[in-house]
UniProtKB/TrEMBL annotation:
Organism in which the protein naturally occurs: Moniliophthora roreri (strain MCA 2997) (Cocoa frosty pod rot fungus)
The protein's name in its UniProt record: DUF6533 domain-containing protein
Keywords: Membrane, Transmembrane, Transmembrane helix
Transmembrane regions: 57-79, 99-120, 127-146, 222-242
InterPro entries: DUF6533
Domain (DUF6533) ranges: 24-66
């Protein structure tokens, strides 16, 4: 580092390596705060539910996210200790952290596929289409991962021996495309949810009916689908700045990405589980309030349902079955 250019490059690398050290702590704090803020709802709505795939996925995403955030902090701060890192360790750890984050994202996308499947009344064509795209996005991820892993050694060869806090935050090749397949797939899922929401809203406005459970579920899904898509777009921008220098977003590490994906998904599943505790449905012009916790009908009165309302019996059964977290399904209620 004898020339001013070399000194400037080293200073830039050093400052870049300090950012993940701080941001990973922020991400862990955010994740733990959200856990403490929602643990009462988890105990109240999730724990009493019978065993089911949705219940398993809730616990998997929730606690895998916390484990992943702890791993980020331990890995980044351990690597900042002088003498810990070397060429092989940095080469191995880079794809490892990406794969760990991808497992979290794929788990979330499985849940989102099931939501879309339920919104389209268990359409087999929609399910197969989304499954093929999902597998394609995974294949694209692994292609980019392997492509960059083979070139990682040459990329960091000149910087690995510098006195940096951790592995060099250098990125090149097609690494900017790492999360593009997942982002594109997320856009497709969001498009499915948006179409159903617009269709439901149009029918409701024409018929003058109230906002029903089906409409509320659509809005809830739409919000979380959009939020996760935004997180993926931001993640792409973060990688682009390191590979192409196009944006001004620094390399934060994947901590905020891991936290946001996990928090958004668990909150979405908690909201759906809350709605499943006491469902109000319209069957043959009769409003029935069904308590899933007690398994009884708590109220029964006549209600006027506008013709053409988007909340039909088949829709309700499909939707309630989709987000039911192990409680007694409304479809089992005798009419």
């Amino acid at each position: 580092m004898t020339t001013p250019e070399e000194q400037a490059d080293f200073l830039k690398l050093y400052r870049g390596n300090l950012v993940p050290l701080r941001i990973c702590l922020v991400a862990l704090t955010w994740g733990l705060y959200d856990y403490l803020d929602t643990v009462k709802d988890e105990i109240k709505y999730i724990w009493p539910a019978r065993r089911s795939f949705n219940k398993f996925m809730f616990f998997w995403i929730r606690y895998y996210t916390i484990t992943l955030l702890i791993f980020d902090v331990v890995q980044i701060h351990t690597f900042s200790i002088p003498g810990i890192t070397n060429d092989k360790l940095c080469i191995i750890m880079d794809p490892t952290t990406r794969l760990a984050g991808a497992i979290s994202l794929w788990s979330v996308e499985i849940i989102m596929q099931l939501r879309v499947y339920a919104l389209y009344k268990c359409s087999r064509k929609v399910a197969i289409f989304n499954l093929l795209l999902f597998l394609g996005s995974i294949a694209g991820f692994f292609y980019v991962l392997v492509f960059n892993a083979r070139r990682r050694g040459a990329l960091i060869a000149d910087a690995i021996h510098l006195p940096l806090p951790g592995c060099p935050t250098l990125h090149s090749g097609v690494e900017w495309a790492q999360w593009v397949p997942a982002t594109a797939y997320e856009g497709v899922l969001f498009g499915f949810a948006l179409y159903k929401t617009l269709k439901s809203t149009t029918l409701r406005l024409r018929s003058g009916s109230r906002v029903g459970l089906y409409s509320l579920l659509l809005r809830d899904n739409l919000f979380y689908f959009f939020a996760i898509a935004c997180v993926l777009i931001f993640n792409n921008l973060m990688v682009v700045v390191c590979t192409r220098g196009i944006t001004r977003v620094p390399w934060f590490s994947y901590g905020p990405f891991h936290a946001a994906i996990g928090i958004l998904t668990t909150r979405m599943m908690l909201n759906i589980s809350k709605a499943a505790v006491e469902d109000v449905v319209f069957i043959d012009g009769v409003s029935k309030s069904w308590s899933n916790r007690t398994g009884t009908v708590s109220t029964l009165h006549i209600a006027n349902q506008a013709p053409g309302s988007p909340l039909t019996r088949s829709d309700e059964i499909s939707v309630l079955d989709s987000f039911e977290m192990g409680h007694t399904s409304i479809s089992k209620m005798d009419t």
